[in-house]
Specification:
mainly alpha; 0% strand; Ribonuclease III domain-containing protein RNC1, chloroplastic; RNase_III_dom
Length: 563
């Protein structure tokens, strides 16, 4: 039995047309309901399904409405046409892309000023710029002159000096009169300018601290100041603790000058408002508080050292900032101490020196050394027992000849020259005395204490050399240059190039190991070279350290090599 086909009504198409005629109102006074006419050409399907279809269309799809002639007569009707476009239509995508480009396309960025190439200055303008620079204004103080700003201070700088410099001077304990009134032969005449530069750290928010002459001047000061602080504390602790090894001293220095405690000293001197004029220092997080404080702290001591010297550095450290070396937070960690049975110099016996004695000490006119008390703190009196031994007879003349010792000195009494040369020979033997030889029985009979002060004076001398040599270089560039020139592996290499490493005195049990293992030999030769710099500083002063570093060992590697 054949079944008849089932005929279903046609489904409404999604593009079903909805027609509506909207008549324009002839006059505003007529009733709204009397002027509107709707005529529908929709099939007999329920209107609910039609509006459901329209309701759920995406907002990006438009609906085309076609006007059908209305049944009512009247003026011509205006029609609104909305076209339905598929979601993946290329025309629609291109149109949306064009609209989005109009809104979101960024403007062309102008390159920063530092990347814009400028024509180089001609020789006349460059010469005039250098001649007008304050860095060439002081002939008698080359180091101080090199740390002045490369151009003269402007009105904004003068305004800061007039408003805030008196507060800084009062907090640090300096007279309030302008330093420009001092004589030209006094380095303190430039103190106001350097003190202003010390507070202009680059972490502030203003255009004044971003100026090139301020930015470079401040960075050069903190570059110098960090080594000034290290040398000051090394000399102080070597004289205060004449029997202590350098390890505990380094811990004391870090506990007093680490960046985690610098905000404490700045606040103790009431300088926090000058460092952070717009913020409260105690409420700042650590990574925002410590870098500006460290920068200002180092730059302050660079300025003080240039204008007043090392005694004033001690006064500001211990009086203005209130540092206490005896504080329990500054004590080194407990370690096994070797028994020291040897004598110390008479001036250290039974007492500890204070910072006032170290700062106020001036060597007598007929003193054997440039720094006699520091020499006696580093070279124990018992070294005289080694006088006339095999090393003193065989190796000492060769070492002194390689180093250019003894220097020609004009002493009033000939016996002073003879005594100095004897002490110099004993100090040189101590510089070459490795800890493996006698340290466990006599803890101070090795080069460790001389190495400690030699490392610090070597850093300071190199910093001064770079500042005077590169007048226009910022501090960070100088810091990297300094690090590369004084790297430990290079210091030991310079000593080995002079063939002086063969004179180092080892214990017989480890001598073969140290001489044939570069991982042991190179740090030892580095320590010996730094100890020689420390001895040179104690005996002849800083000028002889410069001579050793740049003429004998040629740290900068600029002297011609022998063929």
């Amino acid at each position: 039995m054949a079944s008849s086909p089932l005929t279903l009504p046609p489904r409404p198409s999604p593009s079903m047309e909805l027609s509506c005629a909207i008549r324009v109102l002839p006059c505003p006074s007529s009733s709204p309901t009397s002027c509107l006419s709707f005529s529908s050409s929709i099939s007999t399907f329920p209107l609910k399904s039609q509006f459901k279809l329209i309701r759920f269309l995406p907002p990006s799809i438009s609906i085309r409405a076609v006007s059908v002639a209305g049944e009512q007569s009247g003026p011509p009707q205006q029609t609104l046409t909305l076209t339905t476009t598929p979601a993946n239509s290329p025309q629609r995508l291109l149109k949306e892309l064009a609209e989005r480009k109009k809104v979101t396309s960024p403007k062309k960025k102008i390159p920063p000023r530092r990347f814009i190439l400028k024509p180089p200055l001609d020789d006349a303008k460059l010469t005039q710029r250098f001649l007008n620079s304050p860095q060439l204004s002081l002939k008698s103080f080359p180091l101080l002159s090199s740390c002045l700003p490369p151009s003269r201070l402007n009105n904004a700088d003068r305004t800061w000096i007039e408003e805030y410099l008196l507060e800084a001077k009062q907090a640090l304990g300096y007279p309030l009169e302008p330093s420009e009134k001092l004589g030209d032969d006094n380095p303190a005449k430039q103190f106001d300018t350097l003190l202003y530069l010390a507070f202009q750290h680059p972490f502030g928010e203003g255009e004044r601290t971003k100026a090139r002459h301020i930015r470079n001047g401040h960075s050069r000061l903190w570059f110098l100041g960090q080594y000034v602080i290290e040398l000051a504390f090394s000399e102080f602790f070597l004289q205060k603790y004449p029997r202590e090894s350098p390890g505990p001293m380094r811990e004391r220095v870090y506990a007093l000058t680490g960046k985690h405690v610098m905000p404490k000293w700045i606040k103790a001197a009431s300088l926090q408002n000058l460092v952070f004029p717009y913020d409260e220092m105690d409420k700042m997080i650590r990574k925002e508080r410590e870098p500006p404080v460290k920068s200002v702290f180092w730059a302050l001591f660079g300025a003080i050292y240039l204008c007043f010297g090392m005694p004033e550095v001690y006064r500001v450290l211990f009086e203005a900032f209130g540092m206490d070396p005896e504080d329990e937070n500054c004590q080194p960690k407990l370690r096994r101490q070797l028994e020291d049975v040897d004598y110390v110099s008479v001036e250290f016996e039974g007492r500890q020196l204070g910072w006032q004695e170290v700062a106020a000490y001036r060597p007598p006119e007929d003193a054997l050394f440039a720094h006699p008390r520091l020499f006696r703190a580093c070279v124990p009196p018992g070294m005289h027992r080694f006088r006339g031994n095999i090393w003193d007879f065989d190796c000492r003349p060769k070492v002194m000849e390689a180093l250019g010792y003894p220097l020609q000195m004009t002493d009033r009494i000939p016996e002073i020259t003879e005594a100095r040369n004897i002490e110099l020979g004993l100090g040189l033997q101590l510089c070459f005395l490795h800890p493996s030889k006698y340290k466990f029985e006599h803890p101070r009979f090795c080069f460790e204490r001389l190495e400690y002060v030699g490392q610090k004076i070597q850093d300071l001398v190199m910093a001064e050399r770079l500042l005077m040599k590169h007048l226009d270089a910022p501090g960070r560039w100088l810091q990297e240059k300094h690090r590369r020139l004084t790297m430990n592996k290079f210091c030991g290499r310079y000593l080995r190039e002079k063939h002086l490493h063969s004179f180092i005195i080892y214990n017989e049990a480890v001598q073969d190991k140290y001489e044939h293992n570069r991982r042991l030999r190179n740090p030892t030769s580095t320590a010996v070279q730094q100890a020689i710099h420390g001895l040179s500083y104690c005996v002849y002063g800083k000028p002889d350290v410069r001579r050793l570093m740049f003429e004998v060992f040629d740290f900068e590697q600029i002297l011609p090599k022998p063929v």
